[in-house]
Each structure stands twice: as C-alpha cells, then as structure tokens.
TrEMBL record:
Lineage: Eukaryota, Fungi, Dikarya, Ascomycota, Pezizomycotina
InterPro entries, alphabetized: Cys_Synth/Cystath_Beta-Synth, TrpB-like_PALP, TrpB-like_PALP_sf
Stated name of the protein: Tryptophan synthase beta subunit-like PLP-dependent enzyme
Gene3D superfamilies in the cross-refs: 3.40.50.1100
Residue stretches making up the Tryptophan synthase beta chain-like PALP domain: 11-111, 112-279
Length: 281
C-alpha cells in the first residue's frame, strides 16, 4: 500500500513504466518499447521533476529565501510544475507565457499562479542553464528506468526541449551500461541540433524544435543519431497511443513513439527502446 503523502510535491517522480506491446504487435514489430508515464506526475508532465529539483537546490544554496518570488519564462509544462511546487512551498510564482502557448494551458496557469505583479528581487529558475534540470533526471528518472527495465535496455530516444531529460538519463545509463545507444528526436523542418536548415520554425510539435544551435546541457553528451518527425507522424503516434494502449500523450510524447517505431522498423529491429510520455497536453 502506498503511504499517505504530505503534499502534491511529495508525489513527484516514481512514475510507472509500461511496455507498448499492443502497438508493436499490431505493426508486426519485434521487441518492445518501454515507456515512462511521466504524465502521471501531479502537474501532468516530466517537468515537475525539474521544478522541484531547481527550487530545492535554490533553497539549499540560499538563493531563494522565504517571501521571495519565483519567475520563469515558459513555453510549456515547466510553468505548471513550478506552480505546484511554489504553491505547496508558499512562494509567489510569476509566469511569463509565450504567445504561442495553448489557451488551455494559459487558463490552467491562471488558476495556479498567485498573481502577476511587479517583482524586482525574484528568483529566476532558468531551466535551460541550471544544472538541477538534468540532475533531477539523473538522480531519479535514470535510476527508475534502469530498475524498472530490470537492467535490460538497448536504446533511449527523447524529444529534446531544454535537453535536461536526455542529458540526465543518458549520463545515468552510461554509468551503468556503456553499450546503450542514444537518439535525439526533433521536429522535421526544425532539427537545428542535427545541423539541418530550419524550414518550419512554426512546426506543430510543442516543447522542442527551438532555433538554438547549441543547448547547454548537451555538451559532451553522446548522441548516436537524430530522428526527424513530422506533425502528421506525431498526430498518428498520438492516435496509436490512445487507441492501442489507452495512453493520452501530448505531441512530444507522440513524436517519441513515432521515432521508436521508425527505429524498430529499421536498424534497431529486435531491440528494447525506452522513451518518455512527457505529458498529456
């Protein structure tokens, strides 16, 4: 029996890992896709882990003090995670939201934040540069994946936004099994990390495909290949996840499943591939 928890913050992490055998068998694919259901975190995404890690480190270092505000420029799930963590810890959270965010996410954010007001001494979480981003995935997600697959894992694929998940999990898996191979998933037409020309900056897959040629966390981290997924392929992936497995994944999650299927149909036939269901947006 699970213990009674003191807050939603204590429920972050420890998400289940499931095999997508109904998808692979329906497509005649050998082997399986091991999928981490991080959309079952309290804020419905993997970014809850980062939000908790960054805030707790800031408290430990003294850069975030009682009564201080927390601010973040967000394009997706990080804002929801920070809203939850700040709510249970008593911090004012100020979210700056990109114009391209979904209206549903904007409504949810307005319900969670305590207000938008001028604050000159706020703590900026800056998920693209603070090491607690990738360390949260190194200490928890990577460890959970390795244990839940019973130490049997061939490949990791990840749709990269800030690069925190990919970096943290890759570094952890490298430390326990150097034979694992790693692949980055990006939107077709916006795969700048793969040195591709940007032709679709306004692609359909939210949460990644930023026009940044270098990501801070990816320095000195192995990449064995890049996979480009179109918006239509991501939509088809979402339909497969829902109809075959009963999993409601967002676009980045759907890009991951489409990329995993592409690998299993080709050079990775017979391998066990791990991926994340990042959220359910």
């Amino acid at each position: 029996m699970l213990p009674l928890l003191g807050s939603a913050g204590e429920a972050i992490g420890g998400t289940p890992l499931v095999c997508l055998d109904r998808i692979t068998s329906s497509l005649g694919l050998d082997r399986t896709i091991a999928t981490k259901l991080d959309y079952l975190n309290p804020g419905w995404s993997k970014k809850d882990r980062v939000a908790l890690g960054i805030i707790e480190e800031a408290e430990r270092l003294g850069t975030l003090k009682p009564g201080q505000a927390v601010v973040e420029l967000i394009s997706g799930n990080m804002g929801t995670g920070l809203s939850i963590v700040c709510a249970v810890k008593g911090y004012l959270f100020i979210a700056v939201i990109f114009r391209g965010n979904s209206i549903e996410q904007a409504y949810m954010m307005s319900a969670l934040v305590k207000g938008l007001e001028i604050e000159y001494r706020a703590f900026c979480t800056d998920q693209f540069t603070r090491d607690r981003n990738w360390i949260a995935y190194y200490n928890r997600t990577g460890v959970e994946l390795w244990k839940q697959t019973d130490s049997y894992l061939d490949r990791l694929i990840d749709f990269v936004g800030s690069g925190g998940t990919y970096t943290g999990v890759t570094k952890k898996l490298e430390s326990v099994n150097p034979a694992v191979k790693y692949f980055i998933v990006k939107p077709d037409g916006a795969a700048v990390l793969a040195n591709k020309q940007i032709s679709q900056p306004e692609h359909a897959i939210q949460g990644g495909g930023y026009v940044m040629p270098d990501l801070f966390y990816l320095k000195d981290v192995p990449v064995d290949g890049y996979l480009q997924i179109t918006g239509d392929q991501a939509r088809e992936g979402a339909r497969l996840l829902a109809s075959k497995e009963g999993i409601f994944g967002g676009f980045s999650s759907s890009a991951n499943i489409s990329a995993a299927i592409k690998l299993l149909k080709g050079e990775m036939r017979g391998k066990t591939i791990a991926m994340m269901v990042c959220d359910s947006d």
